[in-house]
Amino acid sequence: MMARRQSLAVLVAVLTAAGSLVACTDGGGGSKKATGPVTLTLVEYQKPRADAVEKLLPEFEAAMAKQGREVKVKLIRDILPDDQFKTKITQQYNAGEAPDVADYGAPFVPGFAGAGYLLDLKPYLEKWADWESFYPDIRDQIVQPDGKIYALPHEANTQNLFYRKDVLDRLGVSTTQPTSWPELVSRLKEITGKTGQPAIVLPAGKSWGGGTFGEGFLNVMLGTGSTLYNTDSRKWVIESSGLTQTFELYDELTKDKLLPVQALLNPEPWQPTKYKAFPAGTLPVAAQGTWGWRYDWGPAGSAPIPGLQSKVATWDYPSSDGKPYSVSSVAFSYEVTAQTEHPDEAVELAKWLSSGKAMAEQLVAVGAAAPRTGIDSVAPYSSQPKLIETGKQLSASRSFPPRPGQDQIAQAVAAATEGILTGKMDGAAAAKAFASNAKELLGPDQVETGS
Amino acid sequence: MRLSTNRAAVRAKRRRSGSTAMVVGMLGPSLVLIALFVVGPVGYAVWLSLTNKTLIGFGAQTPKFIGLDNYRQLLSSGEFLHSLSLTGQFIFFSAIVGQFILGMLAALLLTKSTVRAKGLFGSAILLPMVVPEVVASLAWASMLAPDRLGTVNRGLEAVGVTPMAWLQDHPMSSLIVVNTWRGIAFAMIMFQAAIEGISDDLIEAARIDGAGFWQLFRHITLPLIRGPVFLFLLLTTITTASVFGLIYFLTRGGPGGQTQVASIYIYEHSFAFFQLGLGSAASVIMLLIVLVLGLTYVRLAKVEV
Residue B81 belongs to what domain range? Predict the structure, then answer.
């Protein structure tokens, strides 16, 4: 009797602790009745974007009022890092409690679209005259495998290797465009030989989250000539010479102490690298996107670099075919939740924010290029030659549209590169671990091997 | 005679049914709450663990029952087994060794009549327990910061020790120290209350017989507080197994998975990779492990909890 009572007591205590670990998720969707004036909710999770949009919303409300529609927008400022925002909004979507409109990066879209959280915008966009003004590459990139469009892009960017021109000049290291990785690696070794410190930050490991794949690995991989996704079979190619070459490059950079390994293993690896060492000039080369000009290193950025335009320049990524390239991608886009009670008004808001002055203001606030024509002459974007130039490079860049399953691929890349950083794997072993992990995460029917 | 026997039987039956109704009335609300908020979520987690439920991608719309596949995957996953091993180390060194020893020392000191400033000493030890987890984490992140930024490094530098990146070079040891610091107060309170319950006559008699401090502790104090000791071990094992915020804030399971204990593994798979089925299966495995540990403690202690 006593033993049973003891066992019951222990069970309850343990269940309580376990309940706190697992009590989660899967609430039912609530429904709200639409009556009277429409109030939309819009979530922004990055401060510069929230600040820019907050100023614009009264103009949108006024524009709607002119059309005789009473639409109010409640801005939800949920300032969070990417990964935490994704965790939060995923749960909101799943619980049917997401804001009507959200603003986030294109890599989030395939996973959310596949889960049925997002409204198909295609019927709305096909009737919108401005849609034709968006660059064809950008329009193609956001079409999902089911042929639908779930995101309205309002930013594009290119990614390059940013370097501290002032530092390299001082060190006597060439700043001409390197055409191959061996050439760049030898230059990086020269830098490290002179400074005694790592020379380049390429996102790697688990701590950088999706950035390890989207801001580093993918960019290098695109220069190998191998395919990562087979568009015909709609399968991920998890074994190829290009993948192995890319992992071997990370291995070489790690073993030669060219990567800041300890910093990359930090919980927030961008802090000691992009926000401290690069601005200080002690880590003079960084994989970076257009947003670096304003969001990271601009005067109002996270880590301003005085005299940025004269001190920092960019190289394209070296390529195995000797043709350096930049990588372009759809950056942030507006998405409308499938459960919104006001789809017409929500799409109207997304369209308005992706047009004219509203788009120009946002682009300048974060340092992104316009994904469409008709913005170059709109202030304040018209006074940003670097961004306009970036916009013109979009069509000449290489790109990789986000695909379903990209989250799992990014997860496998992060784990494999972390294995390299910690010295547990060499390049070949990391490639093997990646293939095995990706197959396990995606399932055998979603992957294939290539050349 | 027969009539009086029948009346007694009826009265006894009424008493029994009255007492059953009272038991149901008294326990009912608690049982309903436990069923709703404890058994229900755990039952749901067990169900999820038998599916391939995810929160993103096509799997989110069409979760399937996959039997024990998640369990098979976890039990053959080096990463998960490593996280269990790290959880074991974390519990053993921070809760069972660190909190127990230091909590016991603090309790013994506070029960000494000769010790002064007990209030101050006790408050200092209690402070870590009342500080919110996030505040405690922030304080330790600052103290363990690398180079000359961290308080610990500054102190060590003053005595000639080279500064280091504690959370990078010794991540698990650092977390063990922090969790020990957090848990001493709880151990101290439990042990102090138990020690104060020991009769002074017993201690006095042992002293008269020539027992020293260690002999007193080993043969008198410890056996007499065995119940509270095992109760503490049970509770601290359960709570330490589910420590999350402290580790997430300080290391996020890194670097290189060196502090990826089970709670971090479960969080990552459930809420970063959104594999709810797999994350739930990992939770259920943890539940079973802690359950077995808890029952072992209770059997060893032979205490009523």
Answer: 69-301
